[in-house]
Design a protein that fits this description.
alpha+beta, two-stranded antiparallel ribbon, plasmid, single chain
Length: 124
């Protein structure tokens, strides 16, 4: 429950008691993400794929698969987290967030936005 209370206090979710329609059922908690959650965290669904929040400098690039508006880069990176929520140590600890390590090869999914390639997600 402490996790939900913290997220609620920080403005990322609303927590409300919900009474299931079954007779004698215990009330349960219903969590609803706020717009702040969607704007700052909004993690895309996907098995073992994590959204990225920061600026990247690729190093030790092993492979690049480029399509018209997207690319996959297999590389190690240096990353500076820049998302607003990564500046809150309480939230970082709560979500167990760790920026991808500089060492260790991962696959980075990129998209072309305007004239810039932007890292959208990373897979270990």
């Amino acid at each position: 429950m402490g996790t939900y209370e913290t997220l609620q206090r920080l403005g990322y979710v609303t927590v409300e008691k919900f009474q299931p329609p079954l007779l004698g059922a215990e009330p349960v908690l219903r969590l609803k993400p706020t717009q702040k959650f969607n704007d700052e965290i909004g993690i895309a669904a996907g098995d073992r794929i994590h959204s990225c929040y920061g600026t990247f400098a690729f190093k030790n690039v092993k492979k690049i698969v480029k399509n018209t508006n997207s690319a996959e880069v297999e590389a190690a990176v240096d990353q500076q987290p820049t998302a607003a929520w990564t500046k809150n140590p309480e939230l970082v600890q709560l979500l167990g967030f760790k920026a991808p390590a500089s060492e260790g090869t991962r696959t980075y999914f990129m998209a072309l936005e305007g004239n810039n390639w932007v890292v959208k997600a990373v897979r270990p």
